[in-house]
Amino acid sequence: MTCRYCDGIAKKENIVFEDETIAVMLHHAPAMPGHLLALPKEHFTIIEQTPDKIVRKMAVTANKASTALIQVLGATGTNLIIENGTAAEQQVPHLAINIIPRVDGDGLNFQWQPKKVSDEQMGLIELQLKEQTKSLGVEAEKKEPIMLDDAKAKGEAVQKSNYLTRQLRRMP
Ligand SMILES: [Zn+2]
User: Fold this and answer.
1) Quick one: which of 8, 18, 34, 43 could link to 13 by a disulfide (CB 3.0–4.6 Å)?
2) Distance from the CA of 86 to the center of ligand 1, in angstroms?
3) Cα 5 to ligand 1 centre (Å)
4) How far is the CA of 80 from the centre of ligand 1 (A)?
5) What local confidence, expressed as pLDDT, does residue 1 receive?
6) CA distance 46 to 84
7) What distance in Å separates the CA atoms of residue 38 and residue 68, rounded to the nearest whole number?
8) pLDDT band at 134 (very low <50, low <70, confident <90, very high)
9) CA of 141 to the centre of ligand 1 (A)
10) What is the C-alpha to C-alpha distance for residues 4 and 28, in angstroms, rounded to an integer?
11) Distance from the alpha carbon of residue 167 to the mean position of ligand 1, in angstroms
């Protein structure tokens, strides 16, 4: 299988920044001049397949790339967009954050028509999602080892782990 972004990374095409895990490249069909992509160098199709550590690094890199567009191109805003899956109109099956420089009156339009959702439906969706996501924060804490560099950090780490234990005990 060939992947346009994996090829681009391998050939160093339009790459403006790279380190060991992340590349920032100019989009091959830009929505605006300077339209960038922040993407993992390893091939992942969607964000759900991508390790937290890489997602975190992508987000931080995209933030810095956005700052560069503001500083270098004089953008007065940016859109950060992930097309995640074919239903979301993902064109290339390689996860990427689009960073699109914007200025007032540039003619780009990402507006959507709000869908009508009944209070009943909204309530049900909220309930289902609350149930499914209630342990998200705890999971995130568990995945990341707590560093014990000095006494102060040690104090914080102990407090954090007590907090976690309390939360876990509360879980049914
Ligand atoms: Zn790829």
Assistant:
1) 8
2) 15
3) 5
4) 20
5) 61
6) 6
7) 13
8) confident
9) 29
10) 10
11) 39
Q: 83-103: per-residue pLDDT in tens?
A: 999 999 999 999 999 999 999
How far apart are the CA of 11 and the centre of ligand 1, in A? 13
pTM of the model: 0.77
| Residue 42 alpha carbon to ligand 1 centre in Å | 7
Q: Which helix (H) or strand (E) holds 97?
A: strand 97-102
Model pLDDT for residues 136-148, shown as the tens digit of each residue: 876 554 454 444 4
Give me the residue spans of the domains in the chain: 4-102, 119-170
CATH topology for 4-102 is HIT family, subunit A (3.30.428)
Cα–Cα distance for residue pair 74/110, rounded to 1 Å = 20
Query: pLDDT at position 160, please?
Result: 44
